[in-house]
Amino acid sequence: MPAFAANLTMMFNEWSFLDRFDAAAEAGFSAVEYLFPYDFKPEDIQERLVRNGLTQALFNMPPGDWDAGMRGMASLPGRFDDMADGVDRALVYAEATGVKNIHLMAGLADCNDPEAHASYRRAVEHAAHRLAEKRLNLLLEPINGRNMPGYFLNDFRMAEQLIGQLGLTNVKLQFDIYHCQIIHGDVTTRLRKLMPISGHVQIASVPSRQEPDGEELNFPFLFSELDRLGYAGYVGCEYHPRGRTTDGLGWFEPYKRG
To answer: Which of 97, 137, 145, 243 is the most exposed place for a label (fewest CB within 10 A)?
Structure first.
């Protein structure tokens, strides 16, 4: 049976950020994830995790100026030093939270630009080696162009190819089922093919990006498939609730921790 991580950026928005940890634990989640922790002190996040018995499943490295439209720096020529500083900052939060998986956002760049490819590969190699020193995994996530137009890493095949070329054991795929369905479709076949290089899975219904309880995908089947494939990581619930978060957790009843 999969174990689920509440995404505190999207879920439990009825609470302030730190109080979302308490709310997620009360709702029966055993783990949490979110986009960014950097507006809060590492020790404050650590305290919420510990007191609620929660595992930190994932967060992202600093993306640059998010409010100004930046979505990562890895593929941007001339931003290597800023990206590297972000890796160091993320490691401070990794130590406090005990997280094992950190995602490096690629940024907005032309996926056909050789300079962007060279910048991205250099950034991934640097981040992977820094994380390996702490026995952490670096995750790469393809994101669909409808939700994030112009995102550099917008194809699962591109991610698969780079991971294979690098041959670094701590560089893994962040397999977001929602993004996969929009970019390629044929989710189950891709899960079966890419599970050996996948380090984290995320879910949301398609096309609404709401609770995983209907629309295009059969989530009970996919959850059983994850079990059959031997996936032992967390499944991140990166979806926007239709209303109050707790009112939409009927799908989660069979999976909540006691």
So the answer is: 243
Model pLDDT for residues 130-183, shown as the tens digit of each residue: 999 999 999 999 999 999 999 999 999 999 999 999 999 999 999 999 999 999
The structure's pTM equals 0.97
Q: Of the residues 43, 125, 141, 253, which is catalytic?
A: 141
DSSP line for the chain: --EEEEETTTS-TTS-HHHHHHHHHHTT-SEEE-S--TTS-HHHHHHHHHHHT-EEEEEEPP-S-GGGT--BSTTSTT-HHHHHHHHHHHHHHHHHH---EEE--B-B--TT-HHHHHHHHHHHHHHHHHHHTTT-EEEE----TTTSTTBS---HHHHHHHHHHH--TTEEEEEEHHHHHHHT--HHHHHHHHGGGEEEEEE--TTT---SSSTT--HHHHHHHHHHTT--SEEEE----SS-GGGG-GGGGGG---
Q: Is the pLDDT of residue 124 over 90?
A: yes
Q: Could you say which of 43, 125, 238, 253 is catalytic? A: 238
**pLDDT average, residue stretch 41-67:** 98
